[in-house]
Design goal:
The chain is 72% helix and 10% strand. By secondary structure, it is mainly alpha-helical. The chain has one domain: Winged helix-like DNA-binding domain superfamily/Winged helix DNA-binding domain (Arc Repressor Mutant, subunit A), CATH 1.10.10.10. A three-stranded antiparallel β-sheet has the order 1-3-2. Helix 1 crosses helix 2 and helix 3 packs across helix 4. It is globular.
């Protein structure tokens, strides 16, 4: 049972989640347009961006991050390697494993696509104090973890449905 005192906070939470969903939607559309300009599909682009964020990762780790089945990830890596966005490399810690290394940051067309957004975001960040920016950055990191968990849960449910059909 909620009290009248809780209503403003509930409204604040609702507005917050709507703003986050709106940012997510715009991010998806932006990424789709960048991917199209680079001649790749959106999931391939997002996968390379995950690799840029996380560093070299295995196909299994990429599967977990994207929610794609491992066979789909293998095809995705083949496509990206063919376009020189990634390369396969033996894992220095375990030669039986292969890690996928992102290469696209050095590609001029990627820099051209991202530079306007990067510039605008740096200008936006400059309007906040160091303390505010630290808090926002911490929040974004934690929100990313929540999203990764939700992606994993949704993809697990989806796989379970398709295997029981």
């Amino acid at each position: 049972m909620s009290s009248k005192r809780d209503e403003p906070k509930t409204e604040l939470y609702e507005n917050f989640t709507l703003q986050m969903r709106g940012l997510g939607n715009r991010t998806v559309l932006y990424q789709h347009n960048v991917a199209s300009s680079l001649g790749i599909n959106n999931i391939d682009f997002v996968s390379v961006d995950f690799m840029r964020e996380k560093g070299p990762i295995t196909a299994g780790e990429l599967s977990k991050l994207t929610g794609l089945a491992t066979g789909s990830v293998t095809s995705l890596i083949d496509r990206l390697e063919g376009k020189s966005f990634v390369r396969r490399q033996n894992d220095p810690n375990d030669r039986r494993k292969v890690v996928i290394v992102p290469l696209y940051e050095n590609k001029e067309e990627v820099n051209i696509a991202y530079m306007p957004l990067h510039k605008e975001l740096v200008e936006l960040a400059a309007t906040y104090t160091d303390e505010e920016l630290t808090l926002i950055t911490q929040f974004l990191g934690k929100a990313s973890i929540v999203m990764e968990e939700q992606i994993y849960l949704l993809s697990s449910k989806s796989r379970n449905k398709s295997s029981s059909s």
